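Sharing in case it's useful to others searching the archive later.

Someone asked me privately for the predicted structure of BolA/IbaG family iron-sulfur metabolism protein, so I'm posting the question and my answer publicly. Question first, with the sequence:
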Amino acid sequence: MSDTRLERMRSRMQAALQPQELVLEDDSALHAGHAGAASGGGHYNVRIVSLQFEGLKLVTRHRLVYDSVHDMMHKEIHALAITALAPSEV
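And my answer, the predicted structure tokens:
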């Protein structure tokens, strides 16, 4: 199931942000026993490089990433650590 979840997350981020780079990792196993893990939601890390982030503040970049997976948040995604960069910052 988590592979399907990762693929759905990846596909939504790609569609919304057309990233030049997208690395998505499932860190759920590192959080076993954590209270949020009981909900079935996973813990993920994403590194995303997109032209859409040029000139945007960090909080706005994060909002764009969260918006791309908004319907999965708090049900399938418990935590999402985001590194969002513009190409000029790589």
